[in-house]
Write a structure and sequence with these properties.
The complex is a heterodimer of chains A (92) and B (236). Chain A has 3 helices and 3 strands, in the order αβαβαβ. With 92 residues, chain A is an alpha+beta fold. Chain B has 236 residues and is an alpha/beta fold. Chain B has one domain: Class I glutamine amidotransferase (GATase) domain (Rossmann fold, 3-Layer(aba) Sandwich). Chain B has 6 helices and 11 strands. Chain B has a 9-stranded mixed beta sheet, with helices on both faces. The radius of gyration of chain B is 16 Å and the shape is globular. The chains are: A alpha+beta (92), B alpha/beta (236).
């Protein structure tokens, strides 16, 4: 396989973005009280974040992860209040 | 003194721009023009306001997309040159996302959109926007926000306190800073902050919507008038 088609491989990046520890999450608290009212008594520490899925061209998993990390740092996450984990899966 | 030239930036989704334009033009009698978000030169202006609203529909996070508008680059130079910048509500959120102000604004702790009159106590009068006020002054201003809970990490809050960057706090009508007055759940009751140089101010309540008793109050003019006082002071 040529170098060019290597670079043209398609990946799906997933960025899981969560409120940092210590940052208030009133949405998580509201979901928590919802779970309590449904008798999920063992439920603890609910946090609500977001999952962002982006399709990219990347030459390798490292390249895809690197792109995803840079996207998070520049736009997808706000480091003041959020932390993120990036994963990548090849789709073509 | 030369006429003060001010600008109000209109972003797609701003809705407080006309309120700010009207407040500056009619209530303060200041020269003001609407600045389009695609403009790239602000050098002829003396002061700039980023208005409230829902720029870019608050997509991703309030102000996260707006931060990359063409006008934000010249705004950064404008701020770095020490010229006065005021971000109101969404404008405050944009300034935080652009790192022109520290911290971030989170969902109100009630999870509700807050739309009512509130009272704030001025903590820092030494900014271009609060120079007509004194520390301890209590202003009655309206709020209209869903993401108004100011957040900053504890150690950085200490920096804000030390540098005098807390401009105003939510308080009761008699000026007491209490948890009960802190309806959106801001860290340390913070309603307004400034950068270290104190020329960039972000405020969650709307001074431009309280400029005349006919619309429920005029304390907003008391605040905005600071920009005139500041200009007068620097001209002499």
């Amino acid at each position: 396989m040529s170098e060019q088609s290597e670079a043209g491989r398609r990946w799906i990046i997933e960025a899981e973005i969560m409120p940092k520890q210590g940052v208030n999450d009133p949405q998580g608290d509201a979901v928590m009280s919802g779970l309590k009212s449904l008798s999920f008594d063992g439920a603890r520490r609910v946090r609500v974040g977001k999952l962002i899925r982006v399709e990219v061209s990347a030459s390798s998993e490292d390249d895809a992860l690197d792109q995803g990390t840079r996207m998070c740092e520049r736009l997808l996450a706000n480091p003041v209040i959020e932390e993120f984990v990036v994963s990548a899966a090849r789709i073509g | 003194m030369a006429q003060l030239r001010t600008g109000v930036i209109s972003f797609p989704g701003s809705n407080g721009d006309h309120d700010a334009l009207s407040a500056l033009e009619h209530d303060l009698s200041v020269e003001v023009r609407r600045v389009d978000y695609r403009e790239t030169d602000l050098t002829e202006l003396d002061a700039v306001v980023l208005p409230g609203g829902f720029s870019y529909g608050d997509a991703l996070r309030c102000g996260a997309i707006t931060r990359f508008s063409p006008v934000m680059e010249p705004l950064r130079s404008f701020a770095e040159a020490g010229k006065p910048v005021l971000g109101i509500c969404n404008g405050f959120q944009i300034l935080c996302e652009a790192h022109l102000l520290p911290g971030a604004l989170l969902r109100n702790r009630t999870l509700k959109f807050h739309c009512f009159w509130t009272t704030i106590r001025i903590e820092q009068p030494a900014t271009p926007w609060t120079s007509s006020l004194a520390a301890g002054d209590v202003l009655r201003l309206p709020v209209a926000h869903g993401e108004g809970a100011y957040y900053i990490e504890e150690h950085r809050l200490a920096d804000l306190e030390r540098n005098g960057q807390i401009v105003a706090r939510y308080c009761t009508d008699d000026g007491t800073v209490s948890d009960e007055a802190n309806r959106n759940g801001s860290v340390a009751n913070i309603a307004a902050i400034c950068n270290e140089q104190r020329n960039v101010v972000g405020i969650m309540p709307h001074p431009e919507r309280a400029t005349n008793e006919l619309i429920g109050g005029s304390d907003g003019s008391r605040l905005l008038r600071g920009i005139l006082q500041d200009a007068l002071a620097s001209a002499t």
